[in-house]
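note to self — DONT lose this again. spent like an hour looking for the file last time. sequence + predicted structure for the chain T wanted, 178 res
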Amino acid sequence: MALSATICKVELNVIDMDRHYYQQHSMTIAQHPSETDERLMVRILAFALHASESLGFTKGLSTDDEPDLWQKSLSDDIELWIELGLPSEKRLKKACGRSQQVIVYTYGTGGAEMWWKQMQSQVSRFKNLTIRHIDSDTTQALAELMQRNLDIQVSIQDGEINWDSGEKNISFTPELLF
């Protein structure tokens, strides 16, 4: 018998002073059975960092031809493609060819550092690619806050992120790799 997705209800208040974006988002997010709490919270974080009315979650882990999040224009062109984890060069090439802007959020330890050492020279030709790393202390702290019903406020100013879930407040700045 296959495991079913866990449904999470999220009330997300985004205060992005860098982009002058201030909005409340009520979301229902499916956590794939193989998706860790850490990855789900990074998905929510990525949404908060790029929040807009047209940004949306995709099928994610269950499909190979879609990113974790994307923003499409009214003509169905992909304006923003957001990947989480450690995508292959082939996947990045595909994403950069299909989208105006591609952003990758790596996270955790060890594997991300090794991935970046291997990818550094290969991605230099992609002019519409940005890669940021979120350290493992931050992602582990976020994972510990995971609940099926979340009420989160994310404030962004000068690149610094302040995540407040009521229980805990976490401040951090993702490292820009590329």
